[in-house]
Specification:
Length: 215
């Protein structure tokens, strides 16, 4: 019996596997992207892209814990906001323009009802509260703990929540002038509270393990 694969040509021994460069050439080089290029790009494949002054930054694919922590905070905040008709809460994938030439995609974003004119289908102009789940990767920690506080403060976002399972804490930053100050560094056994939304709080231990059943 003849092997069905015997007629297929064998790959050359010296063949090298390379990226499909012709596809890469369809897109602008780093440093040359415009806002229009970025907004027109279909991200797909569960990859998130952020944009700063012509450069594209590819964010890592979220882990299960990342998604559970994100969903815990989203569901807790969304329930609080809906019950009081305070505005709209959405999850990652929504682009937020911090300034001309810079877009971020926070894990959770909130916009007050009175600021609804700053919302559009493609992106929001800033936000009133943003949240990020920090991973244990050094570049992600530098981005979320150092760069983004400066960027979100410069954009005038009143409150920034950092959910950090690696350090076992929730850090809540509130805007004071043009920079953030620490409202609280909350640990398991405590409830993290908001300055912007009086009465809103989450159980730190449950949030950091993404315990949706506890909501």
């Amino acid at each position: 019996m003849t092997n069905a694969t015997s007629s297929l040509p064998a790959p050359a021994e010296d063949a090298e596997l390379e990226p499909v460069w012709d596809i890469a050439y369809l897109f602008p080089p780093q440093g040359s992207w415009t806002e229009e290029d970025y907004l027109a790009f279909d991200q797909g494949a569960n990859r998130r892209l952020e944009f700063t002054d012509g450069h594209i930054e590819v964010l890592p694919v979220p882990t299960e814990l990342h998604q559970l922590v994100l969903l815990y905070f989203y569901e807790a905040l969304s329930a609080f906001v809906r019950a009081r008709k305070l505005g709209l809460v959405l999850t990652s994938g929504l682009r937020v323009r911090l300034r001309p030439g810079q877009f971020r995609e926070p894990d959770v974003v909130f916009m007050r009802a009175e600021n609804a004119s700053r919302r559009s289908n493609k992106f929001w102009e800033g936000a009133d509260l943003v949240m990020e789940v920090v991973s244990d990767q050094p570049d992600a920690r530098e981005r979320d703990l150092e760069r983004k506080p400066r960027e979100y403060a410069a954009a005038g976002i009143p409150e920034y929540w950092i959910l950090d399972p690696t350090s076992n804490r929730i850090l809540v930053l509130t805007l004071a002038g043009d920079r953030y100050i620490t409202h609280g560094e909350f640990r398991p056994g405590e409830r993290a509270t908001s300055v912007l939304l009086e009465g809103f709080s989450v159980d730190v231990a449950a949030a950091l393990r993404g315990d949706l059943d506890s909501l």
